[in-house]
Every structure is written in structure tokens, then in C-alpha cells.
Design a protein that fits this description.
Layout: E1 15-23, H1 31-49, E2 55-61, E3 77-83, H2 86-98, E4 105-112
Antiparallel strand pairs: 1-3, 1-4, 2-3
């Protein structure tokens, strides 16, 4: 049997980034605010991310078996990206602050790597 050697993880290039998304103040807004202000801003930001060199690998929305506040997981949906560098990750999270929607939505980025037993 081949011995598994597991040294220090290597930081991938591009970065593998898991971004969790939580609705926070969203629940305290009117339907009109959601439709006319928040959703257009949110869609615009996510669309802008397409031009920053990032590659969206997949999304996951937990709403099939949940409703309401995020609960103990602290997220409603997540995005998995390959992102060229740390500054781009920072720019992505900052885009919510810059657009003023960080009081309605929360993002958190985690940097990892492809799982070595599955993706070689």
C-alpha cells in the first residue's frame, strides 16, 4: 500500500474561495425595497464579479428545507469560486459595503484548496 504523505497544504493559484451569503436586514424591509433597491444592487454586484477574473464553480442555496433567518449555520447560500488573488477576494466582499447593502446581506469568504483526495 502506498504511504500517504500529507505535508503543509499549498496555497492554490487561483485561490479556491467559498463565500457564504446570509440575509440579515433583508427581513426588515418592504417588498418594494426588495424589488426596487436591494435585488437590483445585489444582482449588479454579482454580475460585476464576472469581470474580475473570477470563475464561478457553483452555488448552493439552502432554501429547500429552510425558511427565514439563517440559524446556526449563519448562511442561506454559498458560492464557490476560483479567484485570481487575495485582493480580488477583498474587493468582492467590500463591494457589499460600497453599495450599502451590507446591512441587508452578509458575506464571508473562506480560502481553501481543491480536496486532494478528489481533485488531483
Amino acid at each position: 500500500m502506498k504511504k500517504i504523505v500529507h505535508g503543509a497544504p499549498q496555497i492554490p493559484n487561483p485561490l479556491r474561495v467559498f463565500i457564504t451569503f446570509e440575509s440579515t436586514g433583508w427581513f426588515d424591509t418592504t417588498q418594494e425595497q426588495k424589488e426596487n433597491e436591494l435585488l437590483p444592487k445585489l444582482k449588479s454586484i454579482i454580475k460585476e464579479w464576472e469581470s474580475n477574473g473570477s470563475e464561478l464553480l457553483g452555488t448552493f442555496d439552502r432554501d429547500i428545507l429552510t425558511a427565514g433567518h439563517a440559524g446556526p449555520t449563519n448562511w442561506h447560500a454559498c458560492f464557490l469560486y476560483n479567484i485570481p488573488d487575495l485582493q480580488t477576494v477583498t474587493n468582492m466582499t467590500h463591494s457589499f459595503r460600497d453599495a450599502g447593502i451590507d446591512r441587508y446581506f452578509r458575506l464571508e469568504a473562506s480560502i481553501g484548496r481543491p480536496f486532494f483526495l478528489v481533485e488531483n
